[in-house]
């Protein structure tokens, strides 16, 4: 089923301008709070009305400013899962699932029982939302939505208010529950991990606009722009001066880069993820940066080293004197994150002399 969205909406000084087309079953929308993610979902659902544009699902036009079409939300066959699940607090699980269902009393009861079984809510039929765990509330909300057999499901940051352990469990649980759902699902999130785990295609938004769109894994491997790379979790950026097709000076790091690939003419930055460095002991290799620790953050399962760029090799900033503290502004530092399973190597050999930037992980960005 093809989804086509091309809408504009202005609220105060904020301007939403979104355009994309997809046939994917699982779509992610990634961006910081206030970038227009939820407004995009609400426009698709009919909760918000765009100023101009068109929204089409399959052969059905849901909104068209030119044709003066604006299908009511309840007729769009789109399910919307809010962050707080929006369950009716004075209704039981069964009553919540039945709310709004059409048909005879027996037909509604049969449908509710079907959803109870499908979403593993047996024994909870007469419980109220406040008596349910987070996972049970989520399953109840999904059961209520799926009872309508929607053609599309919109998930609006459903995990953002949860702690890490519960969030991880409910993410997997939801993906399992949606495994058999053949409709389109759009997940809005500011968490790159959620988006990467869930989506086939990815829409990255900033300040009301789409800055990149395509296959999720391709975008994470090659985001194209500095902002898209930052939103997908990249920590390290340097301005570059392209000296020729295969050589660039990383100006903020003070090193030259020599690569086999063709450096794009329009590239202004290089991005490099903090987990992708290769430690080097002894002689310097090609595309290396010297290890000069400016700060260290020790976490239960990861050590985050913050390294001085080579252009600062002769300087001793105040914050470098206490190496257990991180600079207030780490944007000038090079981040190297080491996961726990690699600590034993550092314990055995000590800190490396250099970190190598592997060409396959380099991202040349606009």
Keywords for this entry:
366 residues; alpha+beta; five-stranded antiparallel sheet
Can you offer a commentary on this structure?
The strands form 5 sheets. Strands 7-8-9-3-10-11 form a 6-stranded mixed β-sheet, sandwiched between helices. α3 packs across α4 and α4 (134-146) runs parallel beside α5 (164-177). The longest helix is centred in the first third of the chain and has 14 residues, at 105-118. By secondary structure, it is α+β, with helices and mostly antiparallel strands. It has helices at residues 37-45, 93-98, 105-118, 134-146, 164-177, 192-198, 216-221, 226-231, 343-349; strands at residues 3-11, 14-22, 26-30, 52-57, 60-64, 69-70, 78-81, 152-156, 184-189, 201-206, 209-215, 236-244, 247-250, 255-258, 269-272, 278-280, 288-290, 293-299, 302-307, 334-339, 354-356, 363-365. The chain starts with a strand and ends with a strand. It has 9 helices and 22 strands.
């Amino acid at each position: 089923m093809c989804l086509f969205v091309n809408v504009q909406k202005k609220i105060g000084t904020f301007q939403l301008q979104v355009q994309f087309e997809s046939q994917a079953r699982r779509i992610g929308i990634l961006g910081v709070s206030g970038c227009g993610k939820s407004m995009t979902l609400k426009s698709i659902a009919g909760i918000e009305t765009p100023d101009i544009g068109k929204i089409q699902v399959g052969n059905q036009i849901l909104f068209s400013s030119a044709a003066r079409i604006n299908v009511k939300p309840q007729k769009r066959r789109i399910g919307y899962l809010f962050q707080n699940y929006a369950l009716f607090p004075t209704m039981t699980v069964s009553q919540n699932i039945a709310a709004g269902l059409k048909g005879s009393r027996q037909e509604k009861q049969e449908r509710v029982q079907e959803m109870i079984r499908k979403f593993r809510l047996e024994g909870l039929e007469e419980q109220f939302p406040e008596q349910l765990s987070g996972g049970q509330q989520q399953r109840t909300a999904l059961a209520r939505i799926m009872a309508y057999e929607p053609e599309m499901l919109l998930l609006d940051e459903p995990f953002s208010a949860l702690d890490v352990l519960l969030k991880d469990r409910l993410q997997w649980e939801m993906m399992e529950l949606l495994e058999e759902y053949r409709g389109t699902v759009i997940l809005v999130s500011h968490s790159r991990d959620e988006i990467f785990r869930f989506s086939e295609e990815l829409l990255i938004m900033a300040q009301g606009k789409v800055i990149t769109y395509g296959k999720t894994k391709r975008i994470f491997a090659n985001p194209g722009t500095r902002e898209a790379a930052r939103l997908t979790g990249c920590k390290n950026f340097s301005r570059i001066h392209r000296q020729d097709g295969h050589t660039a000076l990383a100006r903020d790091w003070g090193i030259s880069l020599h690569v086999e690939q063709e450096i794009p003419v329009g590239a202004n930055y290089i991005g490099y993820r903090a987990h992708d460095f290769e430690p080097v002991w002894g002689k310097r290799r090609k595309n290396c940066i010297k290890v000069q620790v400016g700060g260290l953050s020790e976490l239960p399962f990861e050590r985050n080293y913050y390294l001085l760029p080579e252009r600062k090799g002769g300087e001793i900033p105040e914050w470098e004197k206490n190496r257990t503290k991180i600079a207030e502004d780490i944007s000038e530092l090079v981040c190297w994150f080491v996961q726990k399973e690699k600590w034993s190597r550092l314990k055995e050999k000590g800190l490396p002399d250099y970190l190598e930037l592997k060409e396959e992980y380099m991202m040349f960005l606009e």
